[in-house]
Design goal:
Layout (H helix, E strand, L loop, with lengths): L9 H33 L8 H33 L18 H25 L5
Helix pairs in contact: 1-2, 2-3
Organism: Blastococcus brunescens
Protein name: DUF2975 domain-containing protein
Keywords: Membrane, Transmembrane, Transmembrane helix
């Protein structure tokens, strides 16, 4: 549910929009890092030096965009309701904050893939000079 209040202070308005901004920035950062990883894989260099670090960026983007952005939106909604005086015991609104676990699990899976790429790069360096 969206609540539109035209007379919110600037700080609350910025807080209200910060969740979406954080979501879009994390999508852009994750997509850019994943594009570089896929470009290296397509070029035949899946274990290039920066690939594991780029996968860590993807994991952080998933965690921030999927986990932190919704929490920030909920916090902004609670702050807006509090500013309007609608958070008391007799409030018609039930205000809750929830932390989604799916982005955390997905970020852990991507970090596992990053570690596999890191180990693959070490193995590729070990066998580089062998015939």
């Amino acid at each position: 549910m969206d609540l539109h209040v035209p007379d919110l202070p600037l700080g609350l308005r910025l807080l209200a929009h910060s969740g979406n901004v954080l979501l879009f920035l994390s999508i852009a950062a994750g997509a850019l890092a994943l594009a570089h990883v896929l470009r290296a894989v397509r070029a035949g260099r899946p274990f290039a030096t920066g690939t594991p670090a780029l996968l860590v960026v993807v994991a952080l983007a998933v965690l921030v965009g999927g986990g932190l952005a919704p929490v920030l939106r909920d916090a902004a909604a609670l702050a807006g309701l509090d500013h309007l005086g609608l958070t008391g015991e007799d409030s018609p609104f039930l205000a809750q904050m929830s932390v989604p676990l799916t982005p955390v699990l997905l970020a852990v899976a991507v970090l596992g893939i990053a570690e596999a790429f890191r180990r693959g790069a070490a193995m590729a360096d070990d066998v580089a000079g062998l015939v």
